[in-house]
């Protein structure tokens, strides 16, 4: 299988001088996804959990609804300069033909579409409405999630250069954590895991991400029926609008013992008595 880290020469500059030494960096390689022999898309990713990635991507794009929709997934032959298999092309055979409609790229930040158009489009594609009642999580649990996620980032420990996404239960138990150079790929990987494990809709799970909360990540969470998305950094305006529209709880700046709850505060079960407006 392809490596997830590589060694590159670097010059370490510090007040004590300059040191030449090798450094570990995260591998970034293209993955071409083919459906029935025809190229669908190419994504830049960190190798590993590619099968989860493809399941999550195809599900998030609305091309499959269950793991059984994928009949086979096999790597196509391909070698690098050293004769090693690159594992950079996955050919997927679907049980049913790909829907006869062009793929949209609403999640691209440069697409030029207005927020309302994006929200309307996503709303029509959500397979699992998020229930208003059900999941309830304590703030004391939420504050543990960044640390739990970070403790499972083994490749980040070696490189410092990867995003992570994790699915957690309401008591903070980690079920799946995946790393990738792309935050959207990391989310696709954990959603793909959940799809393969028959855990969708994930109405009882929390999605924790290591970076910011973009519209794209909220869209993927909503597609999977995940009612609570937490991020260590900021959300975008459209991410907040999407979360509100989907009935999803969105938490940002989850660091230390504090957080910002942008939508769906009713799922945070221990804040109502102490809340105040400033």
From TrEMBL:
The active site is at residue 111. SUPFAM superfamilies: Cytidine deaminase-like. One of its GO terms (molecular function) is sulfur carrier activity. Pfam families: FdhD-NarQ. GO terms for biological process: Mo-molybdopterin cofactor biosynthetic process. Required for formate dehydrogenase (FDH) activity. Acts as a sulfur carrier protein that transfers sulfur from IscS to the molybdenum cofactor prior to its insertion into FDH. This is Sulfur carrier protein FdhD. It comes from Nocardia otitidiscaviarum. The lineage of its organism: Bacteria, Bacillati, Actinomycetota, Actinomycetes, Mycobacteriales.
């Amino acid at each position: 299988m392809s490596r997830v880290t590589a060694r590159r020469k670097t010059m370490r500059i510090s007040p004590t001088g300059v040191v030449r030494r090798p450094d570990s960096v995260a591998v970034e390689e293209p993955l071409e996804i083919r459906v029935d022999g025809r190229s669908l898309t190419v994504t830049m990713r960190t190798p590993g959990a590619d099968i989860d990635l493809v399941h999550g991507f195809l599900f998030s794009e609305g091309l499959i609804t269950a793991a059984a929709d994928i009949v086979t997934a096999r790597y196509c032959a391909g070698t690098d300069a050293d004769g090693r298999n690159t594992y950079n092309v996955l050919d997927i055979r679907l049980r049913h033909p790909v829907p006869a409609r062009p793929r949209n790229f609403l999640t691209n930040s440069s697409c030029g579409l207005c927020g309302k158009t994006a929200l309307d489009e996503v709303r029509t594609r959500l397979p699992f409405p998020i229930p208003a009642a059900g999941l309830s999580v304590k703030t004391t649990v939420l504050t543990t999630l960044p640390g739990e996620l970070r403790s499972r980032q083994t490749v980040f420990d070696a490189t410092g250069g990867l995003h992570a996404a994790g699915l957690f239960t309401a008591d903070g138990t980690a079920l799946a954590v995946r790393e990738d150079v792309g935050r959207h790929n990391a989310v696709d990987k954990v959603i793909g895991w959940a799809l393969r494990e028959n855990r969708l809709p994930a109405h009882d799970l929390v999605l924790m991400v290591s970076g910011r909360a973009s519209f794209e990540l909220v869209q993927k969470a909503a597609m999977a029926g995940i009612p609570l998305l937490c991020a260590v950094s900021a959300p975008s305006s459209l991410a907040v609008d999407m979360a509100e529209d989907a009935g999803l709880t969105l938490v940002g700046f989850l660091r230390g013992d504090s957080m910002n709850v942008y939508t769906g505060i009713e799922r945070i079960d221990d804040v109502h008595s102490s809340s105040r407006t400033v």
